[in-house]
User: Which sequence fits this backbone?
């Protein structure tokens, strides 16, 4: 474990800076980094994506708590929205892990790569949804939460890329949508972590120190380093041209997605 911990401390440091600098979800950075690192370690190819997704979900548990508390202190969390959407989030995310467990690494990599293409397009176009309606009723919130949860578990993210546009579309202000999304990230991460842990317990040929589909050295290293470096990214965000950096990062995402398609 000690031999690979420096690798994951380094990955966590990079992920923390990028998350703080660009305001992106940790999973968007962590999942491809984990795929490349685990492949370099010689982990069985059939479980590369499952381990990357499960470990990413576990790291988000820690980052979501601090992020949600920070937004709550600024009054930016709509807790009634959180309460309305969480049942669907829990069911969708947990169910999504069972779907992911039944899928091959090749399919999950292709799915994730196209998700990166979608996020890169969003960054390059700067397109935002036009507010068009109010929040749906209980059934609609259940369906929205379930959809966000399933997709989040399949790509190992806290859901912000999907939940923020949904809330903005429902006439919730952008700052409150971001803050509420941060709070929603915690139940997504808990359900996703539990699902990937359970689904990986009987998987053969997992690497040493794997708990189900959660790779503990990566979890420890990424969490320890990203917590320290995320504030640095926030400080840099106030002194660097973030819009230009987002365009550069979008091009990087396109390159990473293409690389994942041809691994």
Assistant:
């Amino acid at each position: 474990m000690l031999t690979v911990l420096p690798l994951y401390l380094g990955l966590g440091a990079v992920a923390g800076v990028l998350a703080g600098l660009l305001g992106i979800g940790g999973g968007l950075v962590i999942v491809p980094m984990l795929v490349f690192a685990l492949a370099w370690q010689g982990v069985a190819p059939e479980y590369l994506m499952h381990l990357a997704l499960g470990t990413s979900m576990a790291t988000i548990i820690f980052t979501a708590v601090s992020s949600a508390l920070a937004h709550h202190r600024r009054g930016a969390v709509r807790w009634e929205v959180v309460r309305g959407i969480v049942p669907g989030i829990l069911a969708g995310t947990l169910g999504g892990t069972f779907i992911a467990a039944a899928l091959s690494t090749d399919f999950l990599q292709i799915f994730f790569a196209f998700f990166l293409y979608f996020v890169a397009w969003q960054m390059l176009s700067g397109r935002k949804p036009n507010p068009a309606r109010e929040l749906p009723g209980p059934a609609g919130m259940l369906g929205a939460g379930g959809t966000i949860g399933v997709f989040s578990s399949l790509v190992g993210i806290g859901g912000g890329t999907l939940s923020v546009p949904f809330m903005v579309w429902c006439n919730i202000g952008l700052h409150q949508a971001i803050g509420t999304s941060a709070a929603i990230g915690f139940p997504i991460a808990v359900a996703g972590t539990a699902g990937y842990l359970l689904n990986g317990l009987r998987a053969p040929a997992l690497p040493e120190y794997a708990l189900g589909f959660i790779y503990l050295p990566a979890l420890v290293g990424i969490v320890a380093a990203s917590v320290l470096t995320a504030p640095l990214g926030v400080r840099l965000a106030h002194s660097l041209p973030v819009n230009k950096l987002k365009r550069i990062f979008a091009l990087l995402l396109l390159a990473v997605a293409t690389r994942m398609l041809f691994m």
